[in-house]
Specification:
binds tetrahydrodeoxyuridine; 4 helices; alpha+beta
């Protein structure tokens, strides 16, 4: 799938908007994500931290959950962004969930300046564990 500049800009804008809702009291590190469905709808997500640190939810997983809870099932692209020098890269837990619910999804890692790295989830999560592809 070719990512046009228009699509990149739309997803980046949605991720930046979602990031504004970040609840990052502990890390002070705001992250935003936007996931695109096959039908062209975009759902945002931000990171939400907990005083019980391990319960923190990343922006990517919240964007995915937001879309799934709205009935969406097929995803093509997710963009993630944060205010850092080099593009932010999804953590292992997010890679697993993306692999489970959005196999083959294109992951666009960015920062606020719009530097970008584009990779397929299958590259980001090499030798994955998973059987959910068969559960559709
Ligand atoms: N975080 C994300 O939301 N996405 C990532 O890709 C990496 C990290 C969040 C989790 C935590 O709230 C903060 O960034 C610092 O780790």
């Amino acid at each position: 799938m070719k990512i046009s500049k228009d699509l990149f800009d739309k997803l980046h804008f949605a991720a930046v908007k979602a990031r504004e809702n970040s609840q990052s009291y502990y890390s002070k590190f705001k992250v935003g994500a936007a996931i695109l469905t096959e039908a062209g709808k975009i759902y945002g997500g931000c990171n939400i931290e907990s005083s019980s640190f391990g319960l923190t939810m990343c922006a990517e997983r919240n964007a995915l959950s937001n879309a799934i809870c709205n009935g969406e099932r097929i995803f093509t692209v997710i963009l993630v962004t944060a205010d850092i020098d080099t593009p932010i890269s999804p953590c292992g837990a997010c890679r697993q969930l993306l692999y489970d619910y959005a196999p083959g999804i294109i992951v666009i890692m960015t920062n606020l300046k719009k530097d970008a790295i584009v990779e397929n989830i299958e590259i980001l999560l090499k030798y994955p564990f998973g059987f959910m592809k068969n559960l559709k």
